[in-house]
Design brief:
The complex is a heterodimer.
Chain A: H1 3-12, H2 23-33, H3 39-47, H4 50-60, H5 73-80, H6 82-101, H7 103-122, H8 128-137, H9 140-148, H10 150-163, H11 167-174, H12 179-189, H13 194-202, H14 213-229, H15 244-249, H16 254-280
Helix pairs in contact in A: 2-3, 2-6, 3-5, 4-6, 5-6, 6-7, 6-8, 7-8, 7-14, 7-16, 8-13, 8-14, 9-10, 9-12, 10-11, 12-13, 13-14
Chain B: E1 2-5, H1 39-47, E2 52-55, H2 68-78, H3 86-103
Antiparallel strand pairs in B: 1-2
Helix pairs in contact in B: 2-3
Classes of the chains: A mainly alpha, B mainly alpha.
């Protein structure tokens, strides 16, 4: 790795300039670690932040979760689980930046979340919501790279254009690390649970995922499918290769894939509507 | 018939399927098929949190006005790097089949 790469990597990985988590989330974490706290107490904390509550309700009512008409924060917390609300809170605060600046990446992320949920449901996997959240957050590294070093991001885009390569290859050339690595590192420093951190870290390298291989595989497949559909814009327009490890871990076959393609194309129409609404609102 | 996001629905389009309150087709339809959409009706559906509707023909054009050939061509270029991989190539074929079937007969654009 040359000097410039090392320098850029240092800049991006510098914890002092990391966007901080909203105070609400820290309060929520300490409450959720305490057995004695009730959902109502936690809901009160979340409700103290109007914008955040609105976004959580919006997300809980969005097509990606499939629960319709959830109107109170405590219901949202009971339905989604405290961990999901916590990660939703994290993702919505980070995505606030993204929605405005990069609609394409926001759509790609939202789409991947929705498709992760579809796959998890189709295969009858446990913790569908957490898998959906992992899908939603899988490219968080790209947000960090763009937030912390827009210069590097421009260079990455230029190289993709010039050499017609995958974004992660271009990132390696410029920064010496890719968005999955940056995202995984971010997840660690935010103390996100492993079941979210592993899919973020290894969605391009499923074999390296040891403890949550199934979840990682789902997110990998969702990423492949959403890129195959052409929905959103994740930075490059190339479908990643399906990893054998993921195919095997999920015991996929052609029949399942054909059904998933059909389901996801139907669902994406709704996701598009949701995204258009958010951009207007 | 085309399924479109409600945000892209416009007055004058004709509903091709009943609209239900939630996505599952349970309960009483809130708007019957063959109804012509009006601005007021669209606003009402919006208030009822309807996300998508089925309309007659193929009135909403994909970005860049694509016909089936263009769409398949885009699909090929998205898969350009991975066609040599048997698994991913399979996904390509499944997708191509799906697109041919869904755009099918009308070639993506029903003019009637």
């Amino acid at each position: 790795m040359d000097e410039k790469q090392t320098e850029l990597k240092k800049l991006i990985m510098d914890t002092r300039t990391l966007p901080t988590l909203p105070v609400v989330i820290n309060k929520l974490s300490s409450l959720s670690d305490n057995d004695k706290s009730s959902v109502q107490e936690m809901a009160r904390i979340v409700s103290s932040d109007q914008v955040l509550s609105a976004r959580i309700l919006r997300l809980a009512n969005s097509p990606s979760y499939g629960f319709y008409r959830v109107s109170t924060i405590s219901n949202a917390m009971i339905l989604l689980g405290v961990n999901v609300v916590k990660s939703l809170a994290i993702s919505s605060s980070i995505f606030k930046v993204m929605e405005k600046n990069s609609v394409g990446l926001w759509e790609h992320s939202l789409g991947t979340g929705v498709v992760s949920n579809l796959i998890a449901k189709k295969l009858g996997l446990p913790e569908c919501e957490e898998i959906a959240t992992a899908g939603l957050l899988h490219d968080i590294g790209k947000v960090i790279i763009s937030l912390k070093c827009s210069e590097a991001e421009c260079e990455v885009r230029r190289i993709i254009e010039e050499k017609q390569i995958y974004m992660r290859e271009a990132e390696h050339e410029v920064i010496g690390a890719d968005h999955a690595e940056v995202g995984g590192w971010l997840a660690k420093s935010w103390f996100l649970p492993d079941k979210l951190a592993e899919p973020i870290n290894f969605h391009h390298n499923v074999e390296a995922s040891k403890n949550h291989r199934i979840k990682t595989s789902v997110v990998h497949m969702a990423d492949v499918l959403i890129k195959a559909s052409g929905f959103g814009d994740s930075g490059d327009s190339y479908v990643p290769q399906i990893q054998q490890a993921a195919w095997d871990a999920l015991k996929l076959n052609e029949q399942i894939i054909a059904e998933l393609v059909e389901n996801l194309e139907e669902k994406l129409v709704e996701v598009k509507n949701f995204s258009l609404e958010l951009q207007q609102g | 018939m085309q399924k479109i996001p409600l945000m892209t629905a416009r007055a004058g389009m004709i509903l091709a399927r009943d609209v239900f309150r939630s996505e599952s087709a349970i309960g009483i339809p809130i708007c019957g098929k063959n109804t012509e959409l009006t601005d007021t009706l669209i606003a009402r559906l919006e208030n009822l949190k309807v996300q998508s509707v089925y309309v007659e023909g193929h009135p909403v054009r994909e970005e860049g006005d694509h016909n089936l050939d263009d769409i398949l061509c885009d699909l090929d270029s998205r898969f350009a790097k991975v066609r040599q991989d048997p698994l991913t190539d399979k996904l390509h074929d499944i997708y191509a089949d799906y697109l041919k079937r869904s755009m099918g007969e009308s070639g993506g654009r029903k003019t009637d």
